[in-house]
Amino acid sequence: MAAITSADAAPDDAPYGGFEAILSTPALDRDGDQLRTSEWKTPLPEHITVDIDHEMSVRGTVGSATPYLDDDGNLRIRAQFASTATAQEVRTLVKEGHVRTVSVAFMTDKSALKDGRPSREVLNAGIVAVPSNREALILSAKSATEPYGPDADYADPGFQPDKRKRYPLRDAEEVRTAWDYVHQQRNRRPYTAEQLTHIESKIRAAAHRYGVELDDSKALAGMVDVKAGARNSASDQALIQSIHDASGQLGAACVPGDDTGYEDGANMRAVAAAETKSADTPAVLDFQTFLARLSALLTEATTASPNSAGTPQDSHGESATSPADPPADAAPQGPADAAGDAAVAAEESGDAVAAAQAELHARLALASLAEDALSDEIH
């Protein structure tokens, strides 16, 4: 069997690699057949699939090809590999010279005899380890390259492990597309914060060049809202989020503020900040840790602000009392205290349902109080 001569020459429209090969010759093959040039049904198809070992399935397809007859009567193909992982694995085997042969799949129409010879329709090309025709060889292979050539401008110069360039910036439409794609969470995961900064800077520069106005709201799409430069640690932020979620489940509602922090750019790199912390910060605190931190924060909050439970105050900041109020020297009782007393009373009465309901209301009051205290730290 002849050896393959490998070279970086193949179809120009093969961004993921390609090859040229002799698919069949008039020589006698291992099956005792001789596929003559005149027997091929013409015109040849413009497109056939290339698969592994003539699997003849979508799953086994690794590319496509255009067949043609050369001046010597050989059936040849110009083939392009697909971008799939399997196709690129096969391309590597071909490029490195481990697999060097191909085979043709055809259908014989014996009813259309020409001078006593059948007509054969080309169906498929297979990359195989052992071909029927000893001369069915891959002549040249092409490495995978960037889709638009080496001189095209890309936002990603090849940061990912496969070193492929991504996000071409050849016109205004591609700039908008690149901006949209790079702000989708799944597309950001392979990059570091520094790489994302580089990519976004390239897109912004191209946008300026083409007069494109970018939608900065894309920077917030699908991102975790963690404010840059916040005084709280990542674990405190997780606690705040846990309290917020628990309060929401128990019926509490958020009150929107006038200042979202968006205009000053504080949230612009939120996803990068969140992802750099995700490796060592649990997304949700375990229950015992939650209770311990909640208890500490409640103690601090109630000590610092004895009137935070909601006791009405007069214009001098002193608690207003009425004949029905408790003695002046008694500690003010807020919603959390009242709900706690109700829970204890229900439990002592032996009413399990009432006790559970009262405890639920107590937890709501505690969570709301803690969230208020923590929110004061942030804002």
Major sheet summary line: 7 strands, mixed
Percent helix: 25-40%
- Low-pLDDT ranges: 1-11, 221-232, 255-285, 305-324
CATH class of the largest domain: Alpha Beta
Total beta strands = 9
The tally of helices reads 9
Q: What is the gyration radius calculated from CA atoms?
A: 36 Å
Q: Write out the strand line-up for the largest beta sheet, numbering strands in chain order.
A: 5-6-2-3-4-1-7
CATH homolog superfamily of the largest domain: Herpesvirus/Caudovirus protease domain
Order of helices and strands: EEEEHEEEEEHHHHHHHH
| Average pLDDT number | 68
Question: How many domain regions?
Answer: 3
Describe the protein's architecture and organization:
The chain contains 9 helices and 9 strands. With 379 residues, the chain is an alpha+beta fold. It folds into 3 domains: 18-142, Herpesvirus/Caudovirus protease domain (Serine Protease, Human Cytomegalovirus Protease, Chain A, Alpha-Beta Barrel); 154-220; 237-254 and 262-310 and 333-378, no CATH class. The chain has a 7-stranded mixed beta sheet with strand order 5-6-2-3-4-1-7. Strand 2 (48-52) and strand 3 form a beta hairpin. The longest helix has 27 residues, at 352-378. The radius of gyration is 36 Å and the shape is elongated. This is Prohead serine protease domain-containing protein. One of its GO terms (molecular function) is peptidase activity. Pfam families: DUF6582, Peptidase_S78.
